[in-house]
């Protein structure tokens, strides 16, 4: 009995202990998530990475094993700090408790302390910042400086911060201003410094969409104070340490060659620039530089004129500063700070593709996950439209990238992660992954989903039907022994699609894929319900069969009852005169945009038929000026980009019907948006693709392209398009019965509508 009790107690204790202590894998995962967030923040906002030769990929690759191996929080923090150290930036680091030993008190009278060193040099000590909080006394003492500066050849300001107190940043300059000292020290035209920040107008990648996106610096110069200089011209020397608040006017004086800054210890620009705090977890934070000091003439950066010490005695550094001032007054030292021209952000600093790594090592697989996550985090305009929060994607996929054991696993994991975007522009990645595994070859025929069933839509030529017995209208029941609908469902998790119809469309296009010259074993059912088995060689590719997708009817023609018809997919510029003639004689027109235009001619046609309307485009503009980051929406009218009819006169005031479906994608949707805003237009068919807007393409290890919509195109009034599509006024889709009879039911619906509309 006692033995049973002991076992029970041990089991319960172990059970409770297991729940109270985090599993090592969960700790590692949280650390990798934080690493990803930090790495991306630095990648897109730290100014050094825009112009310095820093291999930030390599920094990550070296850090991942250290983070995984860390047994304690301090080891984890040290690994992160070592990665940040590769930036060689004093303003970017893991925050630790300061090691500086602060004096408990300072000798002498309260500060500011003003006295003559000799007849030529005036000394002002302001090292006990806590004394300055007595504003009335501080003002009184500083006003004494004016009278004491008469006939002085130099003034030394000791503004080292030597006491630990709650001094508010920015107060030192405020006190000096309140004391009336700045107009005495500064010329009227003194120009203050500012900050510059990296700004990204969309995702500038190695393969941007037509140069649509841009990157650069936002420069904010602080306004100089408006005062009348009181004419003091003597040299000024400021003694600082790494706790000093260096006032803005001191930087400006140094830049103008009217002051020297002496640093006790290694004073950098760390306290002068804007930084962003990044939570590393486990009670650690990281400071990340997001700004740089910049002056009105375009030069950047700050450095003291002289570095000294640090000294063990309070007076030693001050004595050096006084002697330096004497050297200046005697002409032995000239105050001429060096100027460093501002670096310009290069156009598109492309990521390495690592094309040779078809199956990358784990560190590079995680690099792929980190690239994808951060690119979408900062530049995807539709995170709020995703079913799953993007923040939840990273903890789900880091383990999947780690566990990938082959090229196939890796490709599928990439495709599955991109599928979370639910963006039809991202479908290419999934299709690439699937075809890389199953093969790119298909039999010489096309499949289309009709009423959620895969149906033979076209065959390459009549001999295929004669030889293999497969016919247009046959429903495909099985492929290589697998149920066709199940096969389509199996593909869907690896495809990114904005709407269910587009998902079916993309998966259906992959239904018959396989290895070149292999046989596709198909079970098909014809219109009479007869089921049969056929075998076809996979001898073609989807690219080779693209011409089959196009309609074969006339591009421009007149239908019954003076209704015109224009195939907007195939319309070219040299056919515009024919279109103009057609529009001049018909009483209504059908514009067939069930596909993608091959030219810009459709936008000319829209200018003849629609009023002065446009699509609206908003591009995420990311900028960090401190805590977190801002995402603004830059708005402008984008289409028509080049309109031969700029006045957009209603030259042809006739009713029109625009035909759309799930193949109406991207630029085709923009045409549909424009026409949909015309009072004379009726949209007929089914929802369009729901992914309109310029794309961005970036690459991950293995040379795999990742595509996503990086600009948000909407109606002019802001109505949503992404994940919805253009919504038809008259909803209709083909039926299997009608298709087998050779009917174009969508076209027929449009013709019937235009007849009715004209008869009213």
Task: Explain this structure.
- With 760 residues, the chain is an alpha/beta fold.
- The chain is 33% helix and 21% strand.
- The protein contains 22 helices and 32 strands.
- The strands form 8 sheets. A 6-stranded mixed sheet has the order 2-3-4-8-9-13, sandwiched between helices. Strands 5, 7, 12, 25, 26 and 31 form a 6-stranded antiparallel sheet that branches. Strands 22-23-24-27-28-32 form a 6-stranded mixed sheet, with helices on both faces.
- Helix 11 runs antiparallel to helix 12 (407-419).
- The longest helix has 22 residues, at 24-45.
- The chain is elongated, with a radius of gyration of 35 Å.
- The relative contact order is 0.09.
- Residues 1-23 and 636-644 have low confidence and may be disordered.
Number of helices: 22
How much helix, percentage-wise, in residues?
25-40%
Strands of the biggest beta sheet: in what spatial order? 2-3-4-8-9-13
Oligomer: single chain
Spans of at least 5 consecutive residues with low confidence: 1-23, 636-644
On the 0-100 scale, what is the average pLDDT? Answer: 85
Radius of gyration in whole Å, from Cα?
Answer: 35 Å
Terminus-to-terminus distance: 95 Å
The percent range for strand residues is: 15-25%
For the biggest sheet, the summary is: 6 strands, mixed
Tell me the total number of β-strands: 32
Task: Give a nutshell description of this structure.
The protein is of the alpha/beta class and 760 residues long.
What attributes characterize this protein structure?
single chain; 760 residues; alpha/beta; 6-stranded mixed sheet; 6-stranded antiparallel sheet
């Amino acid at each position: 009995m006692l033995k049973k009790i002991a076992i029970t107690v041990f089991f319960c204790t172990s059970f409770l202990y297991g729940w109270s202590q985090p599993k090592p894998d969960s700790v590692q995962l949280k650390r990798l998530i934080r690493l990803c967030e930090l790495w991306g923040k630095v990648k897109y906002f730290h100014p050094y990475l825009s112009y310095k030769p820093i291999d930030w990929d390599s920094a990550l690759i070296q850090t991942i094993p250290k983070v995984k191996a860390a047994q304690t929080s301090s080891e984890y923090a040290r690994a992160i700090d070592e990665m940040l150290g590769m930036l060689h930036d004093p303003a970017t680091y893991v925050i630790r408790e300061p090691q500086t030993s602060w004096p408990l008190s300072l000798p002498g009278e309260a500060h500011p302390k003003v006295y003559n060193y000799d007849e030529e040099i005036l000394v002002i000590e302001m090292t006990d910042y806590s004394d300055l909080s007595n504003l009335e006394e501080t003002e009184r003492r500083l006003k004494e400086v004016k009278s004491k500066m008469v006939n002085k050849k130099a003034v030394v300001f000791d503004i080292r911060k030597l006491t630990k107190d709650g001094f508010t940043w920015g107060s030192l300059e405020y006190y000096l201003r309140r004391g009336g000292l700045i107009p005495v020290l500064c010329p009227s035209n003194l120009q203050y410094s500012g900050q510059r920040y990296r700004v990204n107008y969309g995702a500038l990648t190695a393969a941007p969409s037509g140069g649509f996106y841009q990157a650069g610096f936002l420069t904010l110069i602080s306004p100089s104070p408006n005062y009348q200089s009181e004419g003091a011209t003597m040299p000024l020397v400021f003694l600082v340490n790494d706790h000093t608040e260096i006032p803005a006017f001191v930087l400006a004086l140094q830049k103008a060659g009217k002051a020297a800054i002496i640093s006790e210890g290694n004073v950098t620009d760390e306290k002068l620039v804007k930084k962003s705090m990044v939570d590393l977890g486990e009670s650690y934070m990281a400071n990340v530089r997001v700004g740089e000091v910049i002056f009105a003439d375009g030069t950047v950066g700050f450095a003291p004129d002289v570095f000294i010490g640090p000294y063990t005695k309070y007076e030693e550094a001050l004595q050096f500063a006084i002697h330096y001032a004497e050297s200046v007054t005697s002409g032995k030292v000239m105050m001429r700070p060096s100027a460093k021209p501002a670096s310009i952000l290069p156009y598109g600093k492309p990521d390495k593709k690592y094309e040779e790594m078809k199956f990358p090592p784990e560190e590079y697989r995680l690099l792929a996950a980190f690239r994808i996550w951060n690119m979408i985090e900062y530049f995807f305009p539709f995170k709020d439209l995703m079913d799953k929060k993007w923040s939840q994607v990273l903890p789900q996929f880091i383990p999947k990238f780690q566990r990938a054991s082959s090229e196939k696993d890796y490709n599928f994991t990439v495709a599955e992660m991109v599928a979370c975007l639910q963006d039809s522009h991202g479908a290419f990645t999934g299709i690439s992954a699937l075809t890389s595994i199953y093969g790119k070859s298909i039999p010489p025929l096309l499949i289309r989903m009709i009423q959620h069933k895969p149906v033979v839509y076209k065959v390459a030529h009549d001999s295929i039907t004669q030889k293999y017995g497969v016919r247009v209208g046959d429903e495909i029941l099985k492929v290589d022994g697998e149920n066709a609908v199940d096969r389509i469902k199996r593909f869907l998790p690896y495809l990114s699609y904005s709407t269910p119809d587009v998902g079916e469309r993309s998966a259906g296009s992959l239904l018959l894929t396989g290895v070149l010259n292999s046989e596709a074993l198909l079970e098909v059912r014809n219109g009479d319900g007869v089921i049969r088995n056929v075998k076809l060689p996979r001898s073609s590719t989807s690219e080779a069969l693209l011409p089959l997708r196009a309609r074969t009817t006339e591009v421009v023609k007149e239908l019954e009852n003076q209704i015109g018809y224009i195939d907007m997919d195939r319309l070219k510029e040299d056919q515009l005169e024919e279109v103009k003639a057609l529009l001049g004689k018909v009483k209504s027109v059908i514009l067939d945009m069930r596909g993608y235009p091959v030219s810009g001619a459709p936008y000319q046609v829209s200018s003849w038929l629609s009023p002065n309307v446009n699509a609206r485009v908003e591009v995420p503009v990311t900028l960090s000026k401190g805590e977190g980051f801002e995402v603004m929406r830059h708005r402008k009218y984008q289409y028509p980009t080049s309109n031969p009819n700029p006045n957009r006169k209603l030259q042809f005031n006739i009713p029109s019907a625009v035909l759309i479906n799930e193949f109406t994608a991207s630029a085709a949707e923009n045409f549909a948006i424009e026409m949909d805003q015309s009072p004379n237009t009726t949209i007929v068919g089914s929802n369009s693709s729901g992914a309109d807007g310029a794309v961005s393409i970036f690459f991950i290890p293995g040379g795999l392209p990742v595509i996503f919509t990086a600009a948000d195109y909407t109606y002019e009034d802001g109505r949503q398009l992404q994940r919805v599509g253009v919504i038809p006024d008259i909803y209709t889709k083909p039926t299997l019965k009608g298709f087998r009879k050779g009917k174009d039911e969508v076209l027929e619906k449009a013709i019937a509508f235009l007849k009715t509309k004209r008869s009213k």
